[in-house]
Design brief:
The structure is a single chain. The chain is mainly beta. It has 3 domains: 4-64, no CATH class; 70-175, no CATH class; 178-331 and 382-429, no CATH class. 14% of the residues lie in helices and 40% in strands. The chain contains 4 helices and 43 strands. A hairpin with a 5-residue loop joins strand 11 (125-126) and strand 12 (132-133). Helix 3 (332-350) packs antiparallel against helix 4 (358-379). The termini are far apart. 34% of the residues are buried.
Length: 430
């Protein structure tokens, strides 16, 4: 006997035949026997199912209801505007903004996606069990995928989550992650999404990403505007801002490879793998540069805690300034509970991007492991007072400020902490 199953769809409006093993095609007798066991008696076309199974192993609808006939047409009322998808926004002067292309349909939780009217019955229909039906629910007209529910009156499809509407192979889905396989550019336009965003390539100059959740960029961010309203921003390669780049995660963290010519604000933790050059970094918690040279140069850094390898350069006259704030100790626990699952999901999602090869996936996996380690380590650390930990070199002419206190390094120091003691700056050898 062939290994197969039958799935009953839409409360008895149809049934699918699903092969569990592709070695043999089930016989007509076997299918009819299972139909009898499941009490399926109407709208069966076994011969057609077997014919299609000979060329395809995909699930096949082989039993359908007879739909009721109505005195008036069924009408559809969409709670979202489909006609403006992929079209640029037009301003009051009829100018088209090709950076705002309406690439997706954004939805809020409990928002109606589509509704139908309830028409008057002319002739009753019959479901696959042989029962009379006078009403077809909304899911009889649409294939329903993830994160969509049917209203109690069965007239509407409703979003279960904040997210965006996708139509894949004729099936409606709502996803809380918006994914772009390549770059953010004129092909995609700006992004304003109420969930997480994953970018497989770069964010090109002049474009904007606004997200209610987390933002992940697998490439480089150029002169762009990235803002996470409730989550974190993670950039695998780095930020090449060209003096016109703003990154904000006021309730979360920012992780990146490097920063050059950019302005960054975050609520908890800033972490760069390599360097910060000619930039402004503001964090209410901690600034960390680990790996590579770990250099801050020609930059302004505002934070309670700074941990890096080097501040300044012996070969550069560029100005650097550290301004200590005394914000409350950051709380990474809430942000980590949101960020860690997102980081763990990134690899699985990127594996579906054909442009990303296996060797790059190894790099991504290692980078994710490092970010998780940084979060874990700093969850366990608390500092009662502002300080800067410089593991290698603190060069001269680096300015430190805390309220009315000021200090400028007068020579090169190696492996030191800059602390505040008795209303004065103090350099302590480590």
């Amino acid at each position: 006997m062939s290994d197969f199953s039958i799935a009953i769809n839409d409360n008895g409006l149809s049934a699918q035949l699903i092969l569990e093993s592709y070695d043999t095609i089930p016989s007509k007798e076997d299918i009819l026997k299972k139909c009898k066991d499941l009490k399926i008696s109407h709208g069966i076309d076994v011969d057609l199912a077997i014919e299609r199974l000979e060329s395809s192993s995909e699930p096949i609808v082989f039993a359908k209801c007879t739909k009721p006939k109505y005195k008036e047409d069924i009408s559809f009322k969409w709670g979202v505007d489909l006609k403006d998808i992929h079209k640029p926004n037009i301003d009051a002067n009829d100018n088209a903004n090709y950076k705002d292309l309406n690439q997706f349909i954004s939805l809020s939780k409990d928002q109606k996606i589509v509704s139908i009217n309830k028409p008057t019955v002319k002739d009753s229909g019959i479901d696959i069990f042989g029962n009379k039906i006078d009403f077809l629910p909304v899911n009889a007209f649409f294939q329903v995928g993830n994160n969509i529910t049917i209203s109690e009156d069965k007239l509407s499809l409703i979003a279960n989550i904040d997210g965006c509407l996708f139509i894949k192979s004729g099936v409606l889905h709502v996803d809380d992650v918006y994914q772009i396989r390549g770059d953010v550019d004129f092909h995609t336009g700006n992004i304003d999404f109420n969930g997480d965003v994953i970018i497989g390539g770069d964010v090109k100059s002049g474009f904007q990403i606004i997200s209610k959740g987390n933002i992940y960029v697998n490439g480089t961010v150029e002169s762009s505007d990235l803002r996470s309203n409730e989550g974190s921003v993670i950039i695998k390669n780095g930020i090449q801002g060209k003096n016109n780049c703003s990154i904000k995660a006021l309730k979360g963290s920012v992780f990146t490879g490097y920063v050059q010519n950019a302005s960054i604000e975050c609520g908890t933790l800033f972490h760069a793998q390599n360097y910060v050059i000619d930039s402004k970094i503001e964090s209410k918690g901690i600034v960390i540069l680990s790996g590579g040279d770990g250099i801050i140069r020609g930059s302004e850094v505002l934070s309670k805690i700074i941990k890096c390898n080097t501040i300044g350069s012996e070969n550069s006259s560029s100005y650097s300034e550290v301004i200590f704030n005394n914000e409350n100790d950051m709380n990474l626990q809430p942000i980590s509970s949101n960020l860690i699952p997102f980081l763990e999901s990134i690899k699985d999602r990127l594996m579906l991007f054909p442009s990303i090869k296996s060797d790059e996936m190894d790099i991504i996996e290692n980078r994710i492991a490092n970010w998780k380690k940084v979060i874990d380590i700093n969850l366990k650390e608390t500092f009662d007072a502002p300080r800067a930990i410089v593991k290698k070199h603190l060069f001269n002419n680096i300015n430190f400020n805390f309220d009315d206190l000021k200090f400028s390094s007068d020579k090169v120091y190696n492996n030191v902490e800059i602390i505040i003691e008795n209303q004065n700056f103090k350099i302590v050898e480590r």
